Amino acid sequence: MLLLEPTRSAGLDRLAAFVPLSGRGYAAERNLDRGPGAHTSVSMMSPYLRHRLVLEREVLAAVLARFSPDMAEKFIGEVYWRAYFKGFLERRPSIWRAYRRDVSALHAQMEGDGALARDLAAAESGETGIDCFDHWVRELKQTGYVHNHARMWFASIWIFTLRLPWQLGADFFLRHLLDGDPASNTLSWRWVGGLHTRGKTYLARADNIAKYTNGRFFPRGLAHAAEPLEERESHPLRPVPMSDPAPEGPVLWLITEEDCAPETRPERLAVNGFVATQSAARRSARPVSPQVLDFTAGAVTDAAERLAAACGTPAVRPVPQEPDARVVIEAAKAAGVGTVATSYCPVGPAAEALAGLRVELARAGLTLAAMQRKEDPPAWEKSDRGFFKVRKAIPELLTA
Fold first, then answer.
1. How confident is residue 205, by pLDDT bands cut at 50, 70 and 90?
2. Band of residue 311 on the pLDDT scale cut at 50, 70, 90
3. Per-residue H/E/C for 174-210
4. Does residue 268 surpass a pLDDT of 90?
5. Three-class SS of residue 14?
6. Is the pTM of the predicted complex or chain greater than 0.90?
7. Domains of the chain, CATH where assigned
8. Strand runs (DSSP E) across 247-374, as ranges?
9. How far apart are alpha carbons 154 and 159 in whole angstroms?
């Protein structure tokens, strides 16, 4: 059974329930990890935001209708961390490519490295003997969720105590987190290890873990130092990618897991039909958690059902695990359109699938229009270095 219902209505209900807690109470208690079923100090909106069942701007509008920007500063900042990480990876996509390459190489390495394979298996099975770490492994596998503060401790223990490659930890998270996001996940692991902000690491300490888990854990044997990881590869900055223009005339709409609220888009398009797909299985070469696959499929199906009702089209079929060019081409022909429109997919598995689909559609004489939401480029433009530039611009971004 899924921890969270993968529907827009469930996300909006959760948002409404959390808004009264998003002011200074959130700032005071957001770091508390009370354990499974008791995460009352945080919104747990991340799976909905990651799939855009609920939009960041909807969250911000709801919070600001209740609190001033000063009162809700911490929570607003967390929402913009998500936008910052998205923008940072959009502008340095080689980070994602290097991560994927390294994961593949490490999996191949384990075939001849019994020690690495053994240590990784112990970590992923929650059999390290570090009580809090092993607990978080079980919580992650059972629920698809771990508190954000616990994710930082977990990554620090993985890298500096267990001495495991950060890429394998990021892969483990991406396979199991309902909110597994290529940008937030990859860059957060790099931040803990000292690669994102060069030389700045995060060290998990037993007293800090005890304090913010209300004494549930006091782990022993943790690393006492966190020497920054190093990499030889540099990751050049590129401009913010351009959005495709909104097409004229009727379109076939393509729903992906990157944007599951198509009815909230501002463009007034003539939608003659739609197809739905997901790429969650592409998160890793290793098996992705059934909970992740079920949540993603549920989110896309919910989006399709809402769009079907809005367009007066037939009920949605089961959502395929992979974008099938033949299905999209046949649907476009049946709808009598020459353009397939969709929401822009940021760097990650869905974007890779969309790039391949664009080529296949072009061969069939069809155009793919991938459109960004207007709130994304302004934040991404400021995501070229550290978060401070985005944080400084939050008043401007909120006004826009």
1. very high
2. confident
3. HHHCCCCCHHHHHHHHHHHHCCCCCCCCCCCCHHHHH
4. no
5. helix
6. yes
7. 8-90+379-399 (1.25.40), 113-212 (1.10.579.10), 250-371 (3.40.50.620)
8. 250-255, 270-276, 339-343, 367-371
9. 9
